């Protein structure tokens, strides 16, 4: 189930973030794996604006979350994290689709995010979800600011990219039977 976060969820979100960072160590990105999760105060800022969604499993255990900001091009996914014990179940895609639906109902045309280019569960994954890379020359002022902040934080030790997808509903994927 996807719902808006409540204050008592925040400590669990920190645990999800720490666990979700661990796989970066396996691909030589120790600095990303060691990055501390957002503080409770940082997470709480998203509560007041209803910009933090969580996903629970069948046992009501928190397994994933998404943080969003409103920027000049629409809704920006600041963070989406899935606990590795619950990865490969479509939870991240479901959260992103929920954010996209929310963005559309709030009259935003685009959902954006920034991510690592060469990490399999980053840019290649988001491309499968319909996101397209935004050339540096076409970044909005807010995306330039976000990318500058990431560079200052040392995230550009590995290639990064801004991506977006429209909020227009896409037809469901076709399946082949038989």
Summarize the structure.
With 178 residues, the protein is α+β, with helices and mostly antiparallel strands.
CATH superfamily: Gcn5-related N-acetyltransferase (GNAT)
CATH C-level: Alpha Beta
Strand order of the largest sheet: 1-2-3-4-5-7-6
Summarize the biggest pleated sheet: 7 strands, mixed
Remind me, CATH topology?
A: Aminopeptidase
Name the structural class. alpha+beta
**What's the helical proportion of residues?**
25-40%
Count of extended strands: 7
Give me the number of helical elements.
Answer: 6
User: Mean pLDDT, as a whole number?
Assistant: 92
Q: Radius of gyration, rounded?
A: 16 Å
Would you identify the CATH architecture? 3-Layer(aba) Sandwich
Description:
By secondary structure, this protein is an alpha+beta fold. The chain has one domain (2-166): Aminopeptidase. It has 6 helices and 7 strands; from the N terminus they run E-H-H-H-E-E-E-H-E-H-E-H-E. It has helices at residues 10-21, 30-33, 40-48, 91-105, 123-128, 141-152; strands spanning 2-4, 52-56, 62-71, 74-82, 110-116, 132-134, 160-166. Strands 1-2-3-4-5-7-6 form a 7-stranded mixed β-sheet, with helices on both faces. Strand 4 (74-82), helix 4 and strand 5 (110-116) form a beta-alpha-beta unit. The longest helix has 15 residues, at 91-105.
């Amino acid at each position: 189930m996807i719902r808006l976060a409540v204050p008592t969820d925040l400590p669990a979100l920190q645990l999800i973030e720490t666990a979700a960072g661990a796989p970066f160590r396996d691909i030589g990105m120790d600095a990303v794996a060691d990055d501390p999760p957002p503080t409770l105060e940082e997470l709480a800022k998203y509560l007041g604006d209803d910009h933090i969604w969580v996903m629970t499993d069948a046992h009501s255990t928190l397994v994933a979350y998404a943080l969003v900001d409103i920027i000049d091009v629409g809704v920006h996914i600041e963070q989406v994290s899935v606990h590795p014990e619950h990865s490969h179940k479509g939870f991240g895609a479901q959260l992103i689709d929920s954010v996209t639906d929310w963005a559309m109902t709030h009259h935003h045309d685009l959902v954006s995010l920034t991510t690592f280019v060469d990490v399999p569960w980053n840019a290649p994954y988001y491309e499968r979800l319909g996101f397209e890379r935004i050339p540096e020359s076409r970044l909005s002022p807010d995306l330039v600011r976000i990318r500058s902040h990431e560079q200052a934080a040392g995230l550009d030790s590995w290639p990064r990219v801004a991506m977006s997808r429209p909020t227009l509903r896409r037809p469901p994927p076709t399946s082949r039977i038989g």
